[in-house]
Structure formats: C-alpha cells, structure tokens
Amino acid sequence: MLAGVAALGALGAAGCSRVASASDVEGGDLLGRLRAQGVARLGIAGEIPFGYIDKNGELTGEAPELAKVIFKRLGVDRVQPVPTEFGSLIPGLASQQFDVVAAGMYINPDRCQQVIFSDPDYQMLDAYIVRKGNPLGLHNYEDVVKKKAKFATGTGYAEIAYAVEHGYKEDDILIVPDQVAGLNAVESGRVDVFAGTALTVREVVKKSSKAEATEAFAPVIDGKPHVDGGGFAFRPDETNLRDAFNVELQKLKKSGELLRILKPFGFTKNEMTDLTAKELCGG
Question: Residue 281, class by beta-carbon neighbours within 10 Å (0-12 exposed, 13-18 middle, 19+ buried)?
C-alpha cells in the first residue's frame, strides 16, 4: 500500500501543476474552477479507514468516498488523490498542492487558526494499541502518566496534545508516521502504547498476534470528557466552496445517506454527530 501511495504521489507531482492561486472573488472562486476542470484534488494521508489507497491502487476511505458524492452533487465529476504524510496535510493545502484535505482530520482550535473546516461528518473517541493482555493496564492518559509508560502517537495527531494535557512530557513522546508504524513500535517493545482514533486502532490490530486495542474512551480535557469530530479542511479564503460543501453534507445527514456511505469503513450510528465546526473550533 505504501508503494502505491508513493507511486501515486509521484504521478501527481509529475502529471499536473499545483492548483491555481485564489482569485479576488469574495469567498473564493475555487468551486467554479473545479467545475470547469471536472476534478478536485484531495489531500490524503494513507490512514485506514479515513483516506487511503487500497490494494488495487484505488482511492477509498470514509473521507474520499464522501467527497466523491458531495463533489458530484456540486458539479465536479471526479476526485484525484494527492498522498502525503498527515503532518504535511495543512502545509500542503496552504501551498496549493491540493484543493481540500480529505483525511478525516480532527477539528480543533489550533487547526482552525490555519484552515477552515466543513462541519464534522463523524465524531470519535480515542483508543490505544497495547501488547496482548494489556500488561500495564493502560486505559486512558492518566494511566499512561501514572505508570510512566513509553508512549507513541502519529505525526500531527491530536493525541499529542491530550498526552501533554495530562502531564506527559512532549519530548518523551515517540512520534511515528502512522498507525502501522505505531503497531510495529508496540509489537517490538519500543513503546508500551500507541494512541490513535478508536476506529484506526481497531482496524490496524485485526491481524496482529502480539497486540490488541483497548476499549474506546473520551480524553478528559479541562476536567471534562472530550469528543472529537472530523471533517474536511479548506483554505481560509475559500468560504464559498466550504459553504456549498456543508449544504450537501447536511442533506446527507438528514436523509441518512451519510451513515450508508461511512458504514463500510466501520462507522456506526454512535459516530454520527450534530456537532458543528464552530463548536469544535472553540465557538
């Protein structure tokens, strides 16, 4: 899969230039340009089940599949993946390497200072990858700190801030590229625990004989359980595209079609949400 991602990334770089610069139109005219081009380029990070290239070399995941439906409704016939590392998604969007981030990205105040988000299409809890039997009894961030566990998470993941919030030293966190690398780190004994989204963690341990996923949990932030929501990120000057995207997203939520689109990737009614980007950005 990684080879496929690399190959597609090389093809994308060689076969087409970066997207055109934003115009002076209030709210941006990217939607009109995408309609004229007939294709929207999606920044993805190779993370199952959010956005990835499958074993057949095809783009899939909850965010790309949802993007295909919404962009089709907006008059854009095709989507094209631009693979990158998760930590490079916002910089890549800013430098116009793609039109939208379609990677199930959590919406939080820090990111809201850099991009604008659609309303979330899902909500999510955290979970851990631990060795079989969970020998250290790690079920939340308090356990990790109290038991001085060796902790890892992914590049740019929200779980970095959650660990730090609970008193874990950021310099002591092992940052790895993705959940597969996190699984390898746990299996090899380099770390005791890898933190990620509940769906990602459950998916990656399915074939492991050495590791397992913990029960999903809500991190406690400022004394309250915190539920994350993920959505699509746009450049700050492209509010017209973001607003049009939101209109179609709300229609899918209301009709129940959103759950139908996301269900093959492990999402359930529990992951459906009425949260807004404004709420998750901090009001």
Answer: middle
Rounded to the nearest 10°, the torsion over CA 41, 43, 45, 51 is -60
Among 192, 208, 225, identify where a domain stops: 225
Q: What are phi and psi of 233, to 5 degrees?
A: -110, 140
Q: How far is CA 117 from CA 59, 70, 171, 177, in A?
A: 22, 15, 29, 23
CATH number, position 180: 3.40.190.10
What percentage of the chain reaches a pLDDT higher than 70? 92
* Shared domain check, 102 and 240: yes
Q: What is the pLDDT of residues 157-215, one digit of tens each?
A: 999 999 999 999 999 999 999 899 999 999 999 999 999 999 889 889 999 999 999 99
pLDDT in tens, 242-272: 999 999 999 999 999 999 999 999 898 989 9
Judge if 190 and 70 occupy the same domain: no
Task: For CA atoms 208, 175, 265, 217, give the dihedral sign.
Answer: positive
The mean pLDDT of the chain is: 91
User: Are residues 104 and 138 located together in one domain of the fold?
Assistant: no
Let me know whether 74 and 48 are in one domain: yes
Query: For residue 205, what are the domain limits?
Result: 126-225
CA 172 to chain centre: 24
Cβ atoms of 160 and 119 within 8 Å: the answer is no
The Cα 235–Cα 88 span in angstroms is 14
From CA 122, how far away is CA 120, in angstroms rounded? 5
The reply to whether the predicted model has a pTM over 0.90 is no
